[in-house]
Amino acid sequence: MHLGRTARITLRIGAGLGFAVIYVPLLLVLVNSLNPDRSASWPPPGLTLHWWSVAAHNSGARAALWVSVKAGLGATAIALVLGTLIAFAVARHRFFGRDTVSFVVVLPIALPGIVTGIALNSAFGTVLAPLGVGLGLFTVIVGHATFCIVVVFNNVVARLRRTASSYEEAAMDLGATTFRAFADVTFPLVRSALLAGGLLAFALSFDEIVVTTFTAGPGIETLPIWIFGNMTRPQQAPVVNVVAAVLVLLSVVPIYVAQRLSADTATSSRV
Amino acid sequence: MTTDAPTAAGRGTVRRLAGALHRMPRLRLTLLLTAPLLWLTVLYLGSLAVLFVSAFWTTDSFTSQVVKVWSTDNFHALFTTPVFRQVVLRSVGVALAVTVLCAVIAFPVAFYTARVARPRWRPLLVVAILTPLWASYLVKVYAWRLILSEGGVADWMLAPLGLSGPGYGLPATVLTLTYLWLPYMILPVHTALEQLPANLLDASADLGARAGRTFRSVVLPMVLPSVAAGSVFTFSLSLGDYITVQIVGGKTQLIGNLVYSNIELNLPMAAALGTVPVAVIVLYLLAIRRTGALNSL
């Protein structure tokens, strides 16, 4: 489309404003973590790294971080197995109800988290509680895995659709068993998609707050739950600022690695 | 390496098993699907089913115990209580406002990244949009809490004009939700604009259309399904949210907050309230299916 000079300039300004809207709040979080003042008034009276060292020794935040890492690893492991299995079924087989299967995979993330949360909460309460299994880290992992399956599924299914099954057939023609063909041919083809999917699943679990609220037992506090609980406490404000800043910096990592691993996979969307 | 060398008998078994799997695709499919489908249908759909059934139960007002007797009292209350109706309308209004704002902001950004920026820069710009998508939800809300706080950036910026920021409340909620879901709108619009064939635009120009006319008659109709696809996220994520409202919403109540505040005291009522966003989202999806947007999700 031929755009006039004015149109181009207007678009540049519009896009520039859009990018500013995206980035300025995140930059503010970084700057605010260096604010010596406890209040969030702007502009900050100076800059200090004092709160960073205070935050590094905060036992509550550290404990919550470890719970988040454990929950993320557990959920990612389950999601990797289940998501990959469905991806192979959907991409390599035709069967009745295939579209329904893809729909059910997406559902846990398409419905509001609070609905998923109370559904799991009441199910755990009525089924697991009589068996003596209370809410705890285990139920958090189960809840997170349910909506992490979709990102693994998306990544692996995208890769499988792009790689023809003829490679596997060739391996088997050459005498490889099904397992051998999988280990030597199929697995290397999907490996990076698995890594990207796993990484995004971990990031998703790490960030989840609503489902966690309803599936965590007393005493199980993930990092988002910790931040949420401390956000409105003036006493904790400086430490929350630092934890938030750390999370902004860390969020660059998964997207960068996932982009490097697989340019073609569904890093962009949660569905 | 005597330990990993399988015995001849063992190798034979593996070979037979592999052969069987190869010959019977149905068996292979069953093995692939059993575990994930058990997980998703029994655990997830089962939980949802229990939740929706419990919407028809009631709570004894004296003992706070759930009474498992079928009744439509909760839904009756839902439709007749003015507060509920207000909150539902407000929630849908917020979700629509967020969607419209996202679309309005997304368009120039996506148009720039897809068609105006130098081709070399385009992938980088897309990454620049993606990165904040993966920044923590809570941190993004927190950022807006800082901006909108008393004496925060918003007040500081508006002070020279003699104004003050909106503070915490309904406008803050709409603003923050728009910020949260903006990337979900920019990305599909960017993809659609990128795939727009250049010769269509040339043809339009050859036929004498100016940029504005080309935009209205060629670009917009072709990009609209993607806007609709993006709106599925902006709409449904806004409708179910209650954390953002709690952090920057002041006294604002949305449907998510109602569900949340009823969970402890009256789970059946919470379940009935929870069916509202689900029903609205399903209706929204059905309405949007006409545009063909769901195929581009």
Automatic annotation (TrEMBL), chain A:
The gene is ydcV2. It is a multi-pass membrane protein. The keyword Membrane applies. It holds the Pfam family BPD_transp_1. PANTHER family: PUTRESCINE TRANSPORT SYSTEM PERMEASE PROTEIN POTI. It is found in: Cell membrane. It comes from Streptomyces cyanogenus. This is Inner membrane ABC transporter permease protein YdcV. The chain crosses the membrane at residues 12-34, 71-91, 103-129, 135-158, 179-203, 209-227, 239-258. Residues 65-258 form the ABC transmembrane type-1 domain. Belongs to the binding-protein-dependent transport system permease family. CysTW subfamily. InterPro entries: Bact_Polyamine_Transport (IPR051789), MetI-like (IPR000515), MetI-like_sf (IPR035906). Gene3D superfamilies: MetI-like (1.10.3720.10). Keywords: Cell membrane, Membrane, Transmembrane, Transmembrane helix, Transport. The lineage of its organism: Bacteria, Bacillati, Actinomycetota, Actinomycetes, Kitasatosporales. It comes from the Bacteria.
From TrEMBL, chain B:
InterPro entries: MetI-like, MetI-like_sf. The keyword Manganese does not apply. It is found in: Cell membrane. Gene3D superfamilies: MetI-like. The keyword Cell membrane applies. It is a multi-pass membrane protein. Its main location: membrane. Keywords: Cell membrane, Membrane, Transmembrane, Transmembrane helix, Transport. The chain crosses the membrane at residues 31-57, 87-112, 124-148, 168-187, 218-239, 267-287. Residues 88-288 form the ABC transmembrane type-1 domain. Belongs to the binding-protein-dependent transport system permease family. CysTW subfamily. This is Inner membrane ABC transporter permease protein YdcU. It comes from Streptomyces cyanogenus. The gene is ydcU.
